[in-house]
Amino acid sequence: MVIGGVFWVRPGHCHDVDFSSFSVVFMEDGTYRLDVEWDADAFLLDVKPGHVEEEDLLRLGLMAEIAREARLQALRRMFQVRIKLRFDGEIVRHEVALPNLGEGRWGSEEPGPSPGKLVRLEGVMPEGARSFVFWASRSFGVVTLSLSREGEESERQILQVSDRSDPFLLDRPRAKRSWLRSVFDFVVLGFEHILPKGLDHILFVLGLFFLGLKLKPLLWQVTAFTIAHSVTLGLSMYGVVSLPSSIVEPLIALSIAYVAIENIFTVELKPWRPTVVFTFGLLHGLGFAGVLSELGLPSGEFVAGLIGFNVGVELGQLTVIGLAFLGVGWFRGKAWYRSRVIIPASALIALAGIYWVIERTLLAS
Questions:
Q1: What pTM was estimated for this model as a whole?
Q2: Is the distance from CB of 122 to CB of 25 less than 8 angstroms?
Q3: How many CB atoms lie within 10 A of CB 288?
Q4: What is the rounded CA–CA span in Å between residue 12 and residue 9?
Q5: With contact defined as beta carbons under 8 Å apart, do 124 and 30 qualify?
């Protein structure tokens, strides 16, 4: 949607974490160039990024030139206002260009005008500048930032929503970020994928919570789920296993509905439940893999990413269980707990899962 002329990025489905990837190169002639892939077509048409169809592009072709230019100017203003580039602590104004403006969305052979998907910020570095700091507003979500001097290997940072980057030193080589710092960044990313952004995963964990009246069986289920999603996450990131999101996403939604429906019709935990949970965990791991894949992890960060992200997801799941215990755990021994808590809550979770199955299946078709 458009708020005050600014395009607000939102996830296209429940496993989008809303990433933006920026690449900054500092040139030997004293200029800098910052590139970001941005769905300018979606901005002009006021639709979700990644959801522009061919008929939308035909509509774009019919848009009046003055209206189209006004929207492009709004896009440029957004990148000027919502991104701050600091050299030695001082904000430097940047120009905004659209280098592939007018190219076809799927290549020059496709009909219909398209503004392209590259936005470039460029300018001149202050003379004698020694450090650079990047900041992007929450409109851009989690940011993966690549920084390099011309002709040199780039360094990479992951910035949580609305965070500033660590200073990039322009006048001397920068010390490599520690492995522990990289792991910590991914722990935060994994935790946020559960809380607050992973509503589907939250409901799945709550589905496990409501049937397990005792802590030990509940922890067995969560452990089975964690091991399973860790396995497929690792295998998927290394290219051993792969399934399209059009299959994975509806199946994840189905797993939520199944667990919740079983809660309604089952009074006690069955022996096969951990096995079922393990199987569903394999699916959820493929969903998590989509998150890390969007980051485009270099090989040097694979291990840090896998360990940190899994730890963050596990901490998020345990937090959900802890909050559930604080909310209704006190009443688990009451005679009315099943009729007043388990069944109504599981029914709502099942409805959400069924709705997502239908929605994600239709989106995939």
A1: 0.65
A2: no
A3: 25
A4: 9
A5: yes
